[in-house]
From TrEMBL, chain A:
Chain intervals for the UniProt region annotation (Disordered): 56-83
Residues engaged in binding ATP: 126
Gene3D superfamilies: Phosphorylase Kinase, domain 1, Transferase(Phosphotransferase) domain 1
Catalytic activity, as annotated: L-threonyl-[protein] + ATP = O-phospho-L-threonyl-[protein] + ADP + H(+); L-seryl-[protein] + ATP = O-phospho-L-seryl-[protein] + ADP + H(+)
Residues in Protein kinase domain copies: 97-382
Family: Belongs to the protein kinase superfamily. CMGC Ser/Thr protein kinase family. CDC2/CDKX subfamily.
Official protein name in the record: Protein kinase domain-containing protein
Keyword vocabulary terms for this entry: ATP-binding, Kinase, Nucleotide-binding, Serine/threonine-protein kinase, Transferase
Keyword hit for Cell inner membrane: no
Lineage: Eukaryota, Metazoa, Chordata, Craniata, Vertebrata
One GO CC annotation: nucleus
TrEMBL record, chain B:
UniProt biased composition (Polar residues): 329-341
Region (Disordered): 329-352
Domain of life: Eukaryota
Keywords from the UniProt entry: Cyclin
The protein's name: Cyclin-like domain-containing protein
Biased composition (Pro residues): 343-352
Length: 427, 352
């Protein structure tokens, strides 16, 4: 199955690339004209059904039990015949969208795959429960107000907001999968070229956020959406915040435990963008290795223990100030020396040293030594990519650079225990 | 390789430009006509009162100044979008602050809406607040994330620290939390890190309540406040200021107008206090909390007890530069300055 998908990804990214770009441009222009007026619009010829080969390949896939999103993989044109779109419908109205199937759900929201009856495009509908006594959850307000201001090729696009008395629905662009799902479909780690392209996009998105002093604070594979051509977009800005003022005391209850940096685990509340870089480093390992970097811990001290066994226990010498952090209890720590990363994550042994070098700089215990997204993008790990990839405009996808495409994922022999794999039911 | 200072400076310019764009996109304030907000029966004094009250609430809830500034921005945008009846003004203002907190404050700090209402001592019901929340979000299309005057204070401050490190010891610009800021100079020992930005922030909070000043964009207001201080604190201020003015893309005519009004307004606040407050003020000794709404913050008079002659000269030199006036005799200026500054007899500086 993985082979088929990869094959399809390659075909789509290669042969169809230019046609696809044109379609997108046209669509974008149409979206703009929708926003300015809801008057009648030309039909979207570009949204017509795609060549059937890739589409049927995916449809032949058996539906997955946990997350059905891949089972009815369509494309922007899927709904055309069934739900003729109507330019008279308005944005902001629940009648304008039709939900097709449930993609996943968490404590506060359920995500559906849907189709816009305004223009026939597929969308992801994130339905948020509104508590009667607290009003709109702060996560939704943050997500909506931040995403309204953020336009970047590696940040998910928020199309619309539907706010009724009972529910609140955020309408996002539809993305075929997410990194968590993709990883579980390719156990044993991803193609190293693909890892490079995915990490590059993650860092591009992060650089953009960090240059605006915005911290994401919840990076994990499930929050990185992937399109069929391999475009990665950062999603779920519910915990994100702007940190325009230096030295603010921030919450240490951020970031899913496995991706939380040691300084925050130790109770540091004055963290900065290095927080997201640590999470990105963990995701880097996960893409290479096929398994989370520091998995399984259920509480903060176990998580710290996990990190110390790999990177060593910090001291006042290696990290001035660490002993002053609230949760630093050296007496509970068995002495531990830093290990070579390639002895912990064996995949690194097969790859050039620069991979390990970049990773080690992203996973520095001491936040001030951790590499910034900006510096990481300049690292020679990325030098094998065509240079124009570093000089793209904010809203330009890296796949616009000629020759940049995903490669086939080879099914690796090293299969992982299923318990290690991610199966979080999240969009 | 360029110096780390230059890289930091470039980074800050990117940040400033992004903030200016956000401000340009979303900044909107109601117009005043015949002492009232156009289209509503809210008078300027009612408005001013409500902003002061909002400041009190912000302090009561332990929200940070950015939250207050964002709340005021939300309120202003709403007042310029809808016709608001005075009886709803308080509820609109309160809800604006709640919304700003939901964006800006950590979950632990916000507390429940019910608790906030109880603490405020107001008679709103939670349902009223939530209804208002929906109205505001819909009217402003959920587009609440903007750059406020407080954000600009911090960006300008960081630009000063990174671009003019030689100023750090002399005017206590230092902020330990700014990455890349130079090591603390001797001047910093007396001033807690980041205090300067905190003082400017408080001045901004005052100015936001003044209906004549709310017509100015946050970036203009922040620059005016900083320039007024720079004039006093460093002989080198003009080059520093022109640099900031250029980066901030602020119209110089509007800026001059704003700066005059800020100066006048802050001075008027000082006069409304008991005169001896000026003399006992010592910036280094007063804890942060007490400073929050203390209008005697102006360093011009605060530092060293009272305006010193050297400061005064620089202050006026500054204005001459700004207006390209010819230099006049300094003695006259000092006299007029002293007349303007304080109705009190020139007491000697604080004894301690």
């Amino acid at each position: 199955m993985e082979g088929l998908l990869s094959c399809w990804v390659r075909i789509c990214c290669g042969e169809e690339e230019e046609e696809e770009e044109e379609e997108r441009k046209e669509e974008e222009i149409k979206m703009k004209s929708f926003k300015t007026s809801c008057s009648s619009l030309p039909l979207a010829e570009a949204d017509g059904p795609r060549p059937a080969f890739w589409f049927s390949t995916l449809q032949a896939r058996p539906p997955r039990q946990q997350r059905g999103r891949r089972s009815s993989e369509g494309g922007d044109g899927e709904g055309d015949g069934v739900f003729p779109w109507n330019p008279g419908l308005r944005f902001g109205s629940s009648h304008s969208y039709l939900s097709l199937e449930r993609l996943g759900g968490g404590a506060s929201a359920v995500v559906y795959k849907g189709v816009s009856r305004i223009n026939g495009r597929l969308v992801a509908l994130k339905e948020i429960r509104v508590k009667s006594e607290e009003g709109v959850p702060f996560t939704a307000i943050r997500e909506a107000s931040l995403l309204k201001a953020l336009k970047h090729a590696n940040i998910v696009v928020l199309h619309d907001i539907i706010h009724t008395r009972e529910t609140l629905t955020l309408v996002f662009e539809y993305m075929q999968t997410d990194l968590g799902q993709y990883l579980s479909e390719h156990p044993g780690g991803l193609n190293s070229h693909n890892v490079r392209l995915l990490l590059l996009q993650l860092l591009r998105g992060l650089l953009f956020l960090h240059s605006l002093k915005i911290l994401h604070r919840d990076l994990k594979p499930q929050n990185l959406l992937l399109s069929f051509r391999g475009e990665l977009k950062i999603a779920d800005f519910g915990l994100a915040r702007s940190q325009s003022v230096p030295g603010l005391v921030l919450s240490s209850q951020v970031v899913t435990l496995w991706y939380r940096p040691p300084d925050v685990l130790l109770g540091n509340t004055e963290y900065c963008s290095s927080l997201d870089v640590w999470s990105a480093g963990c995701i880097f390992v996960e893409m290479l290795q096929g398994a989370p970097a520091f998995p399984g811990a259920s509480d903060q001290s176990a998580q710290l223990q996990h990190i110390w066994t790999v990177l060593g226990v910090p001291s006042e010498l290696s990290w001035p100030g660490v002993t002053q952090l609230p949760h630093f209890h050296p007496e509970r720590l068995p002495p531990s020396r830093p290990k070579k990363l390639h002895n912990v994550w064996k995949r690194l042994q097969q790859l050039p040293g620069k991979t390990e070098d970049l990773l080690s700089q992203m996973l520095k215990l001491r936040p001030s030594e951790r590499i910034s997204a900006q510096e990481a993008l300049k690292h020679h790990y990325f030098h094998t990519l065509p240079p124009p990839i570093m000089h793209l405009g904010d809203t330009t996808s890296i796949f616009k650079v000629p020759g940049v495409r995903l490669e086939a994922e080879v099914r690796a022999g090293r299969k992982l225990r299923p318990s290690v794999l991610h199966s979080a039911p999240y969009w | 390789m360029k110096s780390p200072g230059a890289a930091e400076s470039r980074r800050l310019v990117v940040l400033l430009e992004a903030a200016l764009l956000r401000e340009a996109r979303l900044w909107k304030v109601p117009l005043f006509k015949n002492g009232c907000i156009q289209g509503a029966d809210v008078s300027s004094s009612q408005y001013q009162e409500i902003i002061f009250w909002l400041g009190e609430m912000n302090r009561l809830f332990h929200f940070c100044p950015e939250t207050f500034a964002l709340g005021v921005c939300v309120l202003n945008r709403l007042l310029s979008t809808v016709k608001a009846q005075p009886k709803y003004l308080k509820c609109i203002a309160f809800t604006s602050l709640v919304l700003a907190a939901k964006i800006n404050e950590e979950d632990e700090v916000i507390g429940s809406v019910q608790d906030l209402v109880v603490q405020s001592g107001c008679s709103f019901s939670t349902a009223e607040i939530l209804r208002m929340e929906r109205i505001i979000l819909d009217k402003l299309q959920w587009d609440l994330y903007t750059a406020t005057a407080v954000d600009f204070i911090h960006i300008f401050h960081a630009l000063l620290v990174s671009g003019h490190p030689h100023l750090v010891p002399s005017i206590g610009l230092g902020s330990a939390s700014d990455p890349g800021s130079p090591a603390a100079g001797p001047g910093l020992q007396k001033r807690p890190a980041g205090l300067q930005a905190a003082l400017w922030t408080r001045q901004v909070q005052h100015c936001m309540a003044c209906h004549q000043l709310w017509q100015f964009k946050g970036s203009t207001l922040a620059l005016a406040i900083i320039t007024l201080e720079l004039e006093v604190l460093t002989p080198d201020w003009f080059s520093v200021f022109t640099n900031l003015l250029k980066k901030a893309q602020v119209d110089s005519g509007e800026f001059i107008h704003c700066k005059e009004m800020v100066d006048e307004y802050l001075q008027s606040l000082e006069f409304s206090l008991p005169p001896n407050a000026v003399y006992i003020f010592n910036s280094a000794l007063i804890p942060d909390q007490q400073r929050a709404w203390n209008p005697t913050l102006r360093l011009r008079r605060g530092r060293g007890g009272f305006a010193q002659q050297g400061d005064t000269d620089e202050f006026y030199d500054g204005f001459r530069c700004l207006y390209s006036e010819e230099t006049t005799q300094q003695g006259n200026n000092v006299d007029s300055q002293q007349k303007n500054v304080s109705p009190c007899p020139p007491l000697h500086p604080a004894l301690n």
